Amino acid sequence: MPVLVITGTGTEVGKTVTTAAVAAAAVAAGRSVAVLKAAQTGVGPGERGDADEVARLAGRVTARELARYPEPLAPATAARRSGRTPVRPQEVAEAAAKLATEHDLVLVEGAGGLLVRFDAAGGTLADAARLLRAPVLVVASAGLGTLNTTELTARELRTRELDLLGVVIGSWPGEPDLASRCNLADLPQVAGAPLLGALPEGAGSLAPDAFRAAAPNWLAPRLNGRWEAESFTTREAPAPLA
């Protein structure tokens, strides 16, 4: 798995922090890692983008960004409004492939969800994954509504004959509600793929050293971690109704 594409079921689901955790766990396992942000929006010149944040948390990784647009919009819209050239799936695939010749693992982080458009032609992260023949990791939220968005994402991946590696919960609440607890069992069912981790709420606010030390505890062995879905689900599952 030299290239792994990471997408979310939407915005603000913990995609960047999850990417950092995957990177940190891989580095801890002795792998060289590069992170490629296909299109960064909502960040001005000189400001830190998502790839920079991954590098800050994960440590010894190569961070690359293909395009940057100042307004916090979908990449195609942000590119059009700024008058800048949009990034295209072929460019994402070429950049990732080049990084893969120099690193053991390349993480390609999208913007928002799987079908957010990069350009006016409708190119998406899914198109880049197809060109790369790379598996896709889906980052989902924990609570109510996540089953629908996760299943929609999984169905689209299957329609495009892309490999869904699994699902990671991007922010597991300190005090999870009933829906979140039930979703631990339901997410793998609707996704048709395993649950591969759960990051604790606020993980991204940890000091980098603490983040790197803890990251393998949040991810399954498939992602170079020690987390076990069965034991986590059993521990967090709600008590049955009497």
Structure in words:
The protein is of the alpha/beta class and 242 residues long. The protein is 39% helix and 20% strand. The chain is built from 9 helices and 9 strands. It has a 7-stranded parallel beta sheet, with helices on both faces. A two-stranded parallel sheet has the order 3-5. β7, α6 and β8 form a beta-alpha-beta unit. α4 packs across α5 and α6 packs parallel to α7. The mean pLDDT is 96.
Helix content range: 25-40%
Q: What gyration radius follows from the Cα positions, in whole Å?
A: 17 Å
- Helix and strand string, N-terminal first? EHEEHEEHHEHEHEHEHH
**Biggest sheet descriptor:** 7 strands, parallel
Could you say which overall geometry the principal axes of the C-alpha atoms support? Answer: globular
How much is the average pLDDT? Answer: 96
Q: Please report the total strand number as a whole number.
A: 9
Topology record:
Elements: E1 3-8, H1 15-28, E2 33-37, E3 40-41, H2 50-58, E4 61-65, E5 68-69, H3 75-82, H4 89-100, E6 105-113, H5 125-132, E7 136-140, H6 146-159, E8 164-172, H7 178-191, E9 195-200, H8 208-214, H9 229-236
Parallel strand pairs: 1-6, 1-7, 2-4, 2-6, 3-5, 7-8, 8-9
Helix pairs in contact: 1-2, 4-5, 6-7
Short structural description:
The protein is an alpha/beta fold. Helix content is 39%, strand content 20%.
Keywords:
about 240 residues; alpha/beta; two-stranded parallel ribbon; 9 helices
